[in-house]
From TrEMBL:
Its EC number is 1.14.12.17. The lineage of its organism: Bacteria, Bacillati, Actinomycetota, Actinomycetes, Pseudonocardiales. Coiled coil: none annotated. It catalyses: 2 nitric oxide + NADH + 2 O2 = 2 nitrate + NAD(+) + H(+); 2 nitric oxide + NADPH + 2 O2 = 2 nitrate + NADP(+) + H(+). InterPro entries: Cbr1-like_FAD-bd_dom, FAD-bd_FR_type, FNR_nucleotide-bd, Globin, Globin-like_sf, Globin/Proto, MRET, OxRdtase_FAD/NAD-bd. Its cofactor is FAD; heme b. In the C-terminal section; belongs to the flavoprotein pyridine nucleotide cytochrome reductase family. It is an enzyme of class 1 (oxidoreductase). GO terms for molecular function: 2 iron, 2 sulfur cluster binding; heme binding; nitric oxide dioxygenase NAD(P)H activity; oxygen binding; oxygen carrier activity. Residues 163-264 form the FAD-binding FR-type domain. It holds the Pfam family NAD_binding_1. Keywords: 2Fe-2S, Heme, Iron, Iron-sulfur, Metal-binding, NAD, NADP, Oxygen transport, Transport. PANTHER family: NADH OXIDOREDUCTASE HCR, PROTEIN RFBI. This is nitric oxide dioxygenase.
């Protein structure tokens, strides 16, 4: 897996036409990051110690046990700063994160403290490699990133049209399999203003102050209800609690929507959707949204899983395909296990499947799933000649 989590391609390198100052800044950041990287755990501990000393009020934003945070915020910060040479990807995401972070009620002092803590912890890990040039590079990158987020927060506050966060009440929770649950949440006051294909930062009552991203599997509905598919990750702090202990009546909290995944009905081009795991949810939401029109581009939905049992949404998608002639569902599994080959189901990873078939260069492509699957699929698509501008997947900075 690359550490360049915002997007698998291109790798960390400034574009050839990047201004000299950006190239130099990135060189300092990258070289020093490679030196600091082996001490990432120490860096994270130092960061939080400094942050909570400089801004004690920040402590109550984080989980009671910092083990549960596991350095995710400092990792997200470092990833953002290492991507300042890719403003086309980074700036829209930072603007959305700025709106999302309104849920924390951050003040400028929090951003200042986080910047000082980050530089202080890098200095602590780098020792003599922390030169004035290296310090300037990280400080400039942090200033750029923090400014975009704070401006977006200020703009949202000035507009005054959306709350800082939304709440909803669980109306339904049932298991789709032993490790997978469907949860339907009804809005308490305001419906979350998301677009089909976006994702939300969610806090559940069983795990206060531990925010996780979840993607609604439905397009926005008149009643504002949201359907989530949550898979319990072994050893995870939040997902097993959601799958095992969520009850109707639980109140969930949501941050502002994030992400840009979506289909362009007006482009006239056919669409290839490639989804794996619960990454299929935002693509289902896009299909659900398209279902409002009779006339749609041709959509080929490649739905991948390790095993046949992983394709939990196949019945629902096949049902949609049966009534929507523009939709074709293409199931792909890595292993057939005891079942043996299943008619109509291809063997391989989604990346192998899209590389085998095609061509796809006429298509708009949407990819969603675990980071490795996105990475492999995007690489395979590029290998078959699809132009990068036609490939749409959500960049994120998460751990
Ligand atoms: C944009 C986006 C959208 C998402 N949408 C959904 C969704 O709709 N439904 C859903 O169930 N999840 C979704 N996720 C994943 C979700 O946000 C959490 O990361 C996941 O539920 C694990 O959280 P946790 O607290 O249980 O595990 P953590 O406590 O965060 O992690 C525990 C351990 O498990 C590892 N781990 C974390 N996630 C995975 C994984 N997926 N597979 C294997 N190991 C893992 C971690 O590296 C860590 O070692 C989405 C993630 C992103 C980035
Ligand atoms: C300056 C730029 C910042 C960026 C790019 C950024 C980015 C992010 C991202 C991507 C996440 C989600 C992480 C995940 O789920 O894996 C996150 C969560 C969070 N951020 Fe920020 N953030 C910034 C500043 C801050 C500041 C200044 C604070 C407070 C001092 C803060 C507090 C938090 C908290 C409390 C969480 C939730 C942590 C958890 O659930 O464990 N962030 N941030």
């Amino acid at each position: 897996m690359t550490d360049d989590r915002i997007s698998p391609v291109p790798r960390l390198a400034p574009p050839r036409d990047a201004p000299q100052a950006v190239t130099v800044m990135l060189e300092h950041i990258e070289t020093s990051w490679q030196l600091a990287r082996p001490y990432a755990d120490d860096l994270a501990q130092h960061f939080y110690r400094l942050l909570f000393t400089l801004a004690p009020s920040a402590r109550e934003l984080f989980p009671v046990s910092m083990q549960a945070d596991n350095g995710r915020v400092v990792r997200a910060l470092l990833r953002a700063l290492r991507l300042v040479h890719r403003p086309d990807d980074l700036v829209p995401l930072l603007k959305q994160l700025g709106r999302d972070h309104r849920k924390f009620g951050l003040r400028p002092a929090h951003y200042e403290a986080a910047g000082t803590a980050l530089l202080g912890s890098l200095k602590h890990c780098l020792g003599p490699a922390w030169t004035p040039e290296v310090e300037r590079a990280w400080a400039e990158a942090y200033t750029l990133v923090a400014r975009v987020m704070q401006d977006a927060t200020a703009q949202a506050e000035a507009e005054g049209t959306t709350p800082a966060y939304w709440t909803g009440t669980v109306a339904e929770h049932h298991r789709l399999s032993w490790d997978l649950a469907l949860v339907r949440v009804e809005p308490d006051e305001w419906a979350v203003p998301y677009r089909a294909g976006q994702y939300l930062s969610v806090e559940v009552p069983q795990r206060p102050r531990l925010w996780r991203y979840l993607s609604p599997a439905n397009a926005p509905r008149p009643d504002g209800s949201l359907e989530f598919h949550v898979r319990a990750v072994e050893g995870g702090w939040v997902s097993p609690a959601v799958v095992g202990h969520t009850r109707p009546g639980d109140v969930w909290t949501f941050g502002a929507p994030l992400g840009t995944l979506g289909a362009d009905r007006e482009s006239g081009r056919p669409v290839l959707m490639v989804g794996g795991g619960t990454g299929v949810a935002p693509l289902q939401a896009v299909v659900d949204d398209l279902g409002r029109w009779v006339d749609n581009p041709e959509v080929t939905f490649c739905y991948g899983g390790r095993h046949w049992d992983d394709l939990y949404a196949l019945d629902q998608l096949s049902g949609l395909a049966a009534v929507n002639p523009w939709l074709t569902v293409w199931p792909v599994v890595e292993r057939f296990d005891d079942t043996g080959p299943i008619p109509g189901v291809e063997q391989g990873t989604p990346a192998e499947a899209v590389a085998r078939w095609g061509p796809w260069h006429e298509h708009d492509v949407l990819v969603s799933g675990p980071p490795e699957m996105i990475e492999e699929t995007v690489a395979a698509l590029l290998g078959t000649g699809v132009h990068p501008s036609r490939i749409n997947y959500d960049p994120f900075l998460s751990a």
